[in-house]
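Why do we care about 3D structure at all? Because function follows from shape, and shape follows, mostly, from sequence. That is the central idea of this module. The next example makes it concrete: a single protein chain, its amino acid sequence, and then its structure expressed as tokens.
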Amino acid sequence: QGQEKLSCNPRKENGTHVVLCELGNPMKAGSWISVDMELSVSGLEDMGDAITFHLLLRSKNSPSHSNASVTVTVPVEAEAEMELRGNSLPATTVLPTSWQWVEGSRRLEDHGIKVEHVYELHNKGPSTVSGVTLSLAVPHLLGDNVLLYLLELGTEGGVNCSHHPALNPAQV
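And the structure:
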């Protein structure tokens, strides 16, 4: 009939997190109670696809000590929004019309003007992420001609990278 707040106390029993809630003391025989609970659980990143709660209702009334139990499985869905930011240094590059690529040269300036592309992948949350794959396609050929000479690829922050076979083919 009325709504009351429950008094609940978290504790740990045998390596399991337990929340004990007192529903009423004493209760009249034949009483019916409906309980809605909202649980906030952290650290679910490595829990898999679901988390299971075991709910147990115990009566301390004598002579009946009935225990009713139910298992509730709740799906876990992690959500994270990723954002890719990019920048080129310099922002604009103009190649001279007289410039020619020098076949077989090991001098950096014979392969073009240096342009550095920086990409940052940000997790905007709310969950953490792992096992993210970023595939970046860079056009390096225009027909049979070299469009961009891919010199090197660097990473920061413990990122693993696989290099493209066209990376620094002349070993400049």
